[in-house]
């Protein structure tokens, strides 16, 4: 199972940690790290956004 496959199963804190690290490495990482981050940053961002939308919707019911 790849990290991308695991993203939906991550806890909120885990997701935020991965996303924070991915954002940092996208700027300061080696070329190899930046290539690896390029594969996972969009799915991480999408999942974080999806969870924010669900939390927002739940608060406004």
Can you summarize the main beta sheet?
none
Taken from the alpha-carbon principal axes, the silhouette is elongated
- Provide the gyration radius in Å: 13 Å
- The number of distinct helices, counting runs of at least 4 residues, comes to 3
Mean pLDDT across every amino acid position: 96
Structural class: mainly alpha
Between the first and last Cα atoms, what is the distance in angstroms?
A: 36 Å
Helix content: over 70%
Secondary-structure element series = HHH
* Percentage beta strand: under 5%
Low-confidence stretches: none
Instruction: Write down how many β-strands occur, each being a DSSP E stretch of 2 or more residues.
Output: 0
Provide structural commentary.
The protein is an all-alpha fold and 61 residues long. 82% of the residues lie in helices and 0% in strands. It has 3 helices and no strands. The chain has helices spanning 3-6, 12-28, 31-59. Helix 2 runs antiparallel to helix 3. The longest helix is centred in the last third of the chain and has 29 residues, at 31-59. The protein is elongated, with a radius of gyration of 13 Å. The model has no long low-confidence stretch (mean pLDDT 96).
């Amino acid at each position: 199972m790849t990290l991308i496959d695991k993203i939906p199963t991550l806890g909120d804190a885990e997701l935020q940690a991965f996303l924070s690290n991915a954002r940092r490495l996208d700027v300061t990482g080696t070329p190899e790290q930046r290539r690896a981050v390029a594969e996972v940053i969009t799915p991480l961002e999408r999942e974080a956004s999806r969870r924010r939308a669900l939390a927002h919707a739940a608060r406004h019911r």
